[in-house]
Specification:
Helices cover 37% and strands 16% of the residues. It is α/β, with parallel strands linked by helices.
Length: 350
Amino acid sequence: MTKHIVIEGESLYIIAQKYGISLSSLIAANPDIKNPDLIVPGQVLNVPKKSLETPIVIPRENYGYHEMVNDLEALQEFYPFIQMDSIGSTVMCRSIPVIRIGQGQKEVHYNASFHANEWITTLLLMKFLEVYAKAYVSGNNIGYFNIKTLFESTSLYLVPMVNPDGVQLVHGKIDTESQIYAEAVRINGESQDFSGWKANIRGVDLNDQFPANWETEVSRRGATQPAPRDYPGPAPLSEPETRAMAEFTQAHNFRLVSAFHTQGEEIYWGYQGFEPMESQEIIQRFVEVSGYEEIRYVESDAGYKDWFIQDWKCPGFTVECGQGVNPLPVSQFWEIWGKVIGIFLMGLHV
């Protein structure tokens, strides 16, 4: 971000032209300006390096932790109202980012990449963050959704990558000389092909880690030691990633949460009868905007959505995006995007 000191006779339009960016980009980088027509000599303005029309989040193969962090920093520079923090750290001490966008009292939470080889869900949340921010500063609606109204009524908290270590392992971006990599290879049956790996770096399935009939899930899975998938760990919340998610959730009063996974084009929305009546109305709206199938109950426990519904008695959803075999190829991104953007927006609206 460049700083520009306003001189006599300059307008925002003239300054934007001087730096080769659009007027809307300059306004977006200076949210404290209440009236764009009233800038004064000596005033210091933020000038973004890119124009609003240049996409920041680019869907591409092997979109991992560092790509996400770089995009978050670029988005925050461009849209200063995006707030970024951390919910904690992973086994390998990577910070797990959380982003807040919006200013309303109603709090909503979306997360992605609980499972390592479902990393395309991170891209979905990141692209939504960019599209949502851009629509807000541009004053545009998305479909029939009024973005200004959603922004002012709702605070959206995104954790776009719950399992950074696992994602990096799937992408081959872990130091192959390290002991932790050697242990992952051993857990993976001595194979260095981690395309089927869902767990965190220690071989614990993070979405089987929550205190919602965890013991039942252990019996059902039958996994007694670290594995590429389905091992619930030695105890609930044994992993730093799940403890961070639990503490983060407990620190808020979320009206609704959605965990984005792949694949199946299904939305799970009930748990043991703890789900509120309004969940049935919300799921019908999700189905209408996405075309996905709704499933109330499934033989599964100990998931993030299960725990949230059980303890808060509020609407919680697991959204299974796309079709095929994980990891889904990035070539499916825009097809999936066209169906889930309605879920993203509707979750803020209801």
